[in-house]
Every structure is written in C-alpha cells, then in structure tokens.
Amino acid sequence: MLATAVGIRQAAAHLRNGRLVAFPTETVYGLGADATNADAVGRVFQAKNRPAGHPLIIHTASAAAAFAVGAADPTAARLAERFWPGPLTLVLPLRSEVGIADAVTGGRSTVAVRVPRHPVAAALLRAVRRPVAAPSANPHGRLSPTEAQHVRDELGPAVDLVLDGGPTEIGVESTVLELAGDRPLLLRAGGITVEDLEAAIGPVDEPGADEPARAPGMLRQHYAPRTPLRLDADDPLPDEVYLGFGAAPGATCNLSPTGDLEEAARNLFVMLRQLDSAGARRIAVAPIPDHHLGKAINDRLRRAERGAASPGGPASLQTVCERPS
Ligand code: AMP
Ligand code: MG
User: Fold this and answer.
1) By three-state DSSP, how is residue 107 classified?
2) Helix or strand or coil: residue 2?
C-alpha cells in the first residue's frame, strides 16, 4: 500500500491491534510490531525465522519517547540532540516500567532505541503512539530490503501491510552504539559514521577491523546473497560478475563510478540482489575504502562473504544492473 496519509493511518491501526506492518526508514525497510505486545513481537520472530534471543530495535517518534524506554545519560542526550532523528541506535539500560515485551530485549537489562527520520516512519510512529519494535524486514540471514517489493517477495503473507515509500535513502542499517558500560562501544557500523560519533562525544571503542561488531544476534555470517563473494578484487576472473567501485572498467554493476561512499551504501544491497540473480559462479567485489560509510559497507560485505551458499548456478548469465546508479 502506498504510504499516503490514509495508508499511514491504516498501518497505525494495524500496529495498535497487534498486526505486523513493514515500513520504510531512511536505512532499510523495517518489520514493525507493538513492542509492548508479546504476541505481536512473537510473530515478528516467526515471520523472519529469527532465532529467539536476537534482540530487536525499538523505534519511537521522539527522543523523549525513546528515553521513556531506555534510560538516558548525558552522552545519550548529546547524541540524541546531534543525530536524532537519524540512523543511530543507542543501547541503553532498560526502563522496566514501560512494559516492553521480554522477547524484544531477549531478556536483557538493556534495550536498543532509535528515532528514524524517514517522513513515513516518523508519521507512522506519531500515529501509533507506542514504541514499535522493528528489525529489518528480511528473512533471517538474508539481505536487508531497500524497496517495498523486496519485503513482499520475501516475507509475503506473514506481513499484514507493507507501506511503500520508495527506495530507502541510506541503504545500510543504523549504527548501533552501546552506552551501558564505561565507554561507548560500537556494536555495529552503520548509517552514522564513527568519525561523526567521535566528533560529538570523543573516543568510541570499536572491534578490530577483521572482527565484525559483536552485538548479540549479529552473526558473523549475515546479510548474505546466495552466490559466493570474493572481496578486495581488483579485477574479475572469467567466471565472475564484478561489483565495481570508482573507475572500474568492465564492472557488471558499479556501486559508485565516482567513488562516493554514500551512493555506494545506497546501492549495496540492491546491486548484490541483482548480481545474486545473474547466475554467476561468484561475485567479485572491488576494494572499498575502510572509512566513513565504507566501514558499514565492508562490515556487510564481510558478513555476506561468510554467509554465502555453495558455488554453482546456471550457465547463462542474466542481464543485471539495468538501472543506472
Ligand atoms: P536488525 O534486526 O537488523 O534491526 O538488527 C538489530 C540489531 O540491534 C542487532 O544486531 C542486535 O543485536 C542489536 N540490538 C538490539 N537490541 C540490543 C540490546 N539490548 N543489546 C545489544 N544489541 C542490541
Ligand atoms: Mg537485520
């Protein structure tokens, strides 16, 4: 359903009645449920085939509503002022009095909260007037959806309503930052860069470059296409399709011919989907600089590399990347 005022009103009513609604955010499409309704939250896990214990991010319309769910310290308040609404998730001590369903936090004493800036997500959350738990709207372990059609194709009737707000702007998931320990800890690289976080609050602890972020439920293999990947490839081999970045003559798809990391993040999942359906033996990926949004891109690529299935596929290559980036 198109994300008109009528569509948003209907989606809000669905959420308040315990049904599941997929909606666009600036990062990727989310699969939302009333975070205070244990049955609805349970259906999110079922729809995604997500293992129990993998906590969900709660979305709210305002920082005040987010901090009613998770307790804010001065660092959280500063980050909220600087980056909300936007693609930053804060992991904070859970305030138990709001009645968040246990499955949302996996029984933890911390909770992940975010205020999205996509106008459709914002309008929907204002209308629901409840915290909405919303993981990415993809089957567990698959690529996150950046268009409404990806959700319809992969989750189908498990979702009561898909709000279509067009392709998402950022294209990779939110940055997840834990503020429950001594020092801010990066759990997942994402739409807000570490450089920007550090400019606002000083040093942030990060896992080593080869060690993916360690949020619970963040498997080392995740975000996977079915075709195997080969990363940091300067050139494709004869049986490979090539995902380029910057000047990359002969690239099957190019994340950003001009080497723009924001454009590359926006194109990442959709081009991996296109290359995945090309029927190649392998997807070779050009090196991506490991700074700013490149950190989030490389994190997703490393997970996709680990999670991809067996080599193989039909002999004839399908045409892909018809849409210019
Ligand atoms: P997604 O389901 O794709 O939106 O991803 C949600 C991410 O947030 C996962 O990587 C979770 O591990 C992380 N997350 C959610 N809640 C918590 C929490 N209480 N503590 C730590 N990480 C969390
Ligand atoms: Mg996800």
Assistant:
1) coil
2) strand
Q: Over the stretch 81-101, which tens digit does the pLDDT of each residue have?
A: 999 999 999 999 999 999 999
Is there a contact between 280 and 317 (Cβ–Cβ < 8 Å)?
A: yes
**Counting atoms of ligand 1 from 1, which one is nearest the CA of 50?**
2
CB of 27 closer than 6 angstroms to any ligand 1 atom: no
Ligand 1, atom 13: closest residue by C-alpha: 215
Question: Which atom of ligand 1 lies nearest, measured to the CA of 111?
Answer: 19
User: Tokens at residue 68, please?
Assistant: 């009613």
How remote is the C-alpha of 152 from its chain's centroid?
17
- Which residues make up the environment of ion ligand 2, defined by Cβ < 5 Å? 136
- For residue 306, what pLDDT is reported? 78
User: Which helix (H) or strand (E) segment is 65 a member of?
Assistant: helix 63-69
Span 210-257, pLDDT tens digits: 555 556 655 555 567 889 999 999 999 998 999 999 999 889 999 999
- Ligand 1: which of 56, 144, 155 to mutate, judged by most atoms within 8 Å of the beta carbon? 56
Q: For ligand 1, atom 10, which residue shows the shortest CA distance? A: 218
Residues of the chain under the 50 pLDDT cut: 313-315, 324-325
Given a contact cutoff of 8 angstroms between Cβ atoms, the answer to whether 78 and 126 are in contact is no
